[in-house]
Amino acid sequence: MTEGPLVTRRRLLLGAASVVAIGAAGRIATMDSSTSPEGDPQPPCEPQREIVFGSSAATWQLSDADYRRLFVREAEMLFTEDDLLWYRLRPKPDSVLDFKYADQIIEFAEQHGMLVFAAHLVWDEGFGEGWTDDDLWGMDEQTARKVLFDTVERTVKRYRGRVAAWSVVNEAIGTEGVRGLRTDVPWYETIGPSYVAESFDIAPAADPDALLVLNEFGYETVNEYGDRPDDKQRATLRVVDRLLVDDVPVHALGVQAHLPAHEFAERFDPVAYRRFLSEIASRGLKILITELDVLDDGLPADRRIRDRVVADVYQRYLEATLEESAVAAVITFGLSDRYTWLQEDYPRKDGAPRRPLPFSEGLRAKPAYHALEHALETAPPRCQLWEGVGSGNRQEFAAG
């Protein structure tokens, strides 16, 4: 079969009207599907098989012309991997906000008709060397509020109508925290637990049409620290329920899905996982798979064996996940092994290059690509969250 894009995209018009329509569609889809925001009856959607596919990218990666071409061909949603992190926006506590790189990555997405998943507004990492522990943990409450909430508000306002979804708060949930929230976070220490809800409250005032996402990890298997996925799932439901009771505008759960290859079939419980996703959906939230990749620890160095096992993980995971119709997008954390955080942060002990993504370092499709392609093509139909994407004919591609 000839290689081609995972999704045959109907390109978005780049005019302001279409951008607003995209944002509004994402906003409305988080509500009761039978009514509009004004309460008027809405006709039921026509379910489609297409699910938005995206990947993370950074400006420094896209300076690679070959990789840039691959990314443009494959992705219909761009996750901003680096360029909206604080080490870019606010390199030091007293820095003026610098949107140079953020402007570039969002303009790139717009030029190529891609939706933008902007990450992350609030996180306890991503600060860079310009921030010391004392800078983060030593702020009084008034200073912390000004630094955090001013950054959130100004960032969201700057890209109003240009971002389909914001990762508003990332990795705030913990199984050993208080009422489901981690306490080992500088914003919790300096502001208190309300920092999560307050961040979500600020975002829609700055951009009322964007989808607001709570982004998290740890739902699939027991991790290397012994943390159990069912404990993380319960903590997440507790946090989500509290936010919704307090009328906090959280619209979607972002599921990172950093998956282990070693014994995944034995460690992953698809029935329990689908039940958790169904619980999230029953609360009216959409679900985005935001950082999908597969860690190939525990596998032999032989590339053919690793690629086969990694592809099997993609297949098993997506087969379970995409049964839930609230899942609106699948985003990989990188598109090619050429640019994977796992090689940089967690190199294999045997020195073999990591192979966690759909394309090889040489930008060739791997078995994981075809597993991903098959999962997206055969997923049950669902209502589309965003207008103007995901409407291509994959059968036409497959026949090509």
Give structural attributes.
single chain, 400 residues, alpha/beta, TIM Barrel, eight-stranded parallel beta barrel, globular
**Global Rg:** 20 Å
CATH architecture of the domain at 16-260 and 270-275 and 378-399: Alpha-Beta Barrel
Specify the helix fraction band. Answer: 40-55%
Average pLDDT rating: 88
Q: Which residues sit in consecutive blocks of at least 5 with pLDDT less than 50?
A: 7-41, 389-400
CATH superfamily of the domain at 16-260 and 270-275 and 378-399: Glycosidases
Task: Determine the strand fraction and express it as a percent band.
Answer: 5-15%
Q: Largest sheet at a glance? A: 8 strands, parallel, barrel
Strand order of the largest sheet: 1-2-3-4-6-7-9-10
> What order do the helices and strands follow?
HEHHEHHEHHEEHHEHEEHHEHEHHH
CATH fold name of the domain at 16-260 and 270-275 and 378-399: TIM Barrel
Instruction: Note the total helix count.
Output: 16
Distance between the termini: 7 Å
| Overall strand count | 10
Offer a quick outline of the entry.
By secondary structure, the protein is of the alpha/beta class. Helices cover 40% and strands 14% of the residues.
